[in-house]
Specification:
- By secondary structure, the protein is α/β, with parallel strands linked by helices.
- It contains eleven helices and 28 strands.
- Strands 3-2-1-7-19 form a five-stranded parallel β-sheet, covered by helices on one side. It has a five-stranded parallel β-sheet with strand order 9-16-10-11-12, with helices on one face. A five-stranded antiparallel β-sheet has the order 23-24-28-27-26.
- Helix 1 packs parallel to helix 8 and helix 10 packs antiparallel against helix 11.
- The structure holds flavin-adenine dinucleotide.
Length: 432
């Protein structure tokens, strides 16, 4: 059996591990076009701030790869010829497959404004982008950051920590409005201001201005102009569906797969950021851009490719991140609506977070330690934990385990409830 995996991200690596757990002898080939191979994308934020050296981004050693026993081909796949079971590569070579996994991830939505192709207009998709940002970041100079979600903040923080003066432009009236509630947005915005970031609300770039092909500033919809030396943007991502489209596989926003991560061609699978996953719990097909789910999907796809039929059961999305220096865990369903700063989905984001049903909200905390629970009829549907993380672990277990919380529901929803204490007691009583 010849297994071929396109993409050297976490979904592709997990697929190889799964294939090897079933089939020690099959021929496994991975094709990747990232010159750095496999590394931690969430870690890029800490590389930008200088907290992590780039060497620390690589979770696997050469020895690990040897043990996984696969061949790595550096290059870009241009076409999938389904009839012949052949991949066409850049540079005219071709490669046969019996089972194929498309795990090519997603890419930043482009900034569509005149001047967006000037040098110094930057995005953050991969390690090369991060290196490029650092090349342009200069102490004492000025940056404009456009967009929303986690990546925009990572850009803001990275540039601030490199000594740049940063203008952060929001199209709407608050940060990440379809995931965070007003109080949570305020907490983040307040911390940014304390770090010296200049926030601009209802601000939209209509032109990036430049001289000698270098950025000199931005012009905004309301007529204002800002001088700057670089523009960094994170206005959403889109799954790289071009290969699947060329091969006439079924796509919607991502590549459509069933619960076995199989496309409408039984020999072709898709996983990770590029895949639009069927979620049996909601009956919808959704996109995630999260490391954990990409890994789980890749693993399930690998098992299925090797003949061990295994359904991927989507668990409530879970992300631990840092927002303006504040550790924040987001679990399950927490928000709703649209965010003016992000088209579609952002990195480190899940569409499931925004399918908020009619549920009640219990919240507690002030300023940095903040806890919000989304309470359903019998279960907790979601939670946001900012600051103190003591409750993230029990909450993740309570939410993903669909644990019946009827016994504490009333206390959680009572006015001025000490929500944290109620959860702590509930969790302790279950363990005893
Ligand atoms: C800056 C940043 C911050 C993030 N923060 C978080 C976070 O806080 N929490 C979280 O959970 N997730 C976060 N994510 C998202 C997470 O990293 C992704 O969900 C995950 O990496 C997706 O893995 P993947 O294997 O599907 O795709 P990717 O990691 O994108 O890998 C796909 C690979 O395929 C390659 N490729 C594409 N087309 C071809 C082709 N035609 N031929 C050959 N190779 C090709 C690409 O170059 C890439 O190397 C972040 C991502 C970024 C970039």
């Amino acid at each position: 059996m010849k297994y071929v995996i396109i993409g050297s991200g976490v979904a592709g690596i997990a697929a190889i591990e799964a294939i090897r757990s079933v089939d020690a002898a099959g021929d496994v080939v991975m094709i990747g076009d990232d010159p750095h191979g496999f590394y931690s994308c969430p870690g890029l934020a800490y590389y930008l701030t200088g907290e992590l050296h780039d060497k620390a981004l690589f979770p696997r050693t050469a020895d690990d790869y040897r043990k996984m026993n696969f061949r790595y081909v550096k290059g870009r796949v241009k076409n999938i010829l389904r009839e012949q079971h052949i991949l066409e590569m850049d540079g005219q070579t071709s490669l046969p497959y019996d089972r194929l996994l498309i795990a090519v991830g997603a890419q930043a939505m482009p900034l569509e404004a005149p001047g967006a192709n000037l040098e110094g207009v930057l995005k953050l998709d991969h390690l090369e982008d991060a290196k490029r940002i650092l090349k342009f970041a200069r102490r004492g100079k000025t940056a404009v950051v456009v967009g929303g979600g986690i990546t925009a903040l990572e850009l803001v923080e990275g540039l601030v920590s490199r000594g740049m003066k940063v203008h952060y432009l929001l199209r709407g009236d608050r940060y990440w409005s379809n995931v965070l509630d007003e109080q949570e947005s305020k907490i983040v915005e307040h911390r940014l201001v304390e770090e010296g970031v200049k926030l601009h609300y209802h601000a939209e770039v209509i032109e990036v201005t430049g001289k000698n092909n270098r950025v000199t500033g931005v012009r905004l919809l309301d007529g204002k102009t800002l001088k700057c030396d670089l523009v960094a943007y994170a206005i959403g991502i889109r799954p790289r569906v071009e290969l699947a489209k060329g091969a006439e596989l079924a796509i919607d926003r991502g590549i459509l797969v069933n619960e076995y991560l199989q496309t409408n061609d039984p020999d072709i699978f898709a996983a990770g950021d590029v895949a639009q996953i069927y979620d049996p719990a909601t009956g919808r097909s959704v996109l995630d851009s999260l490391w954990g789910p990409a890994r789980q999907q890749g693993y399930a796809a690998g098992l299925n490719m090797a003949g061990k039929k295994t359904a991927y059961i989507k668990s409530p999305p879970f992300n631990v991140t840092r927002l303006a220096g504040l550790t924040t865990t987001i679990i399950g369903t927490v928000g709703r609506g649209k965010d003016a700063d992000v088209v579609g989905i952002a990195r480190g984001d899940s569409e499931t977070w925004r399918q908020l049903p009619d549920a009640m909200v219990a919240q507690t905390g002030f300023d940095v330690n903040h806890l919000r629970l989304v309470v359903g009829d019998k279960t907790l549907l979601g939670a946001i934990v900012m600051g103190d993380q003591k409750l993230s672990f029990p909450l993740e277990k309570i939410i993903s385990g669909n644990i019946d919380i009827s016994s504490i529901r009333e206390r959680l929803l009572s006015p001025n409830a000490r929500v944290g204490e109620v959860i702590t007691e509930f969790w302790a009583s279950r363990k005893n």
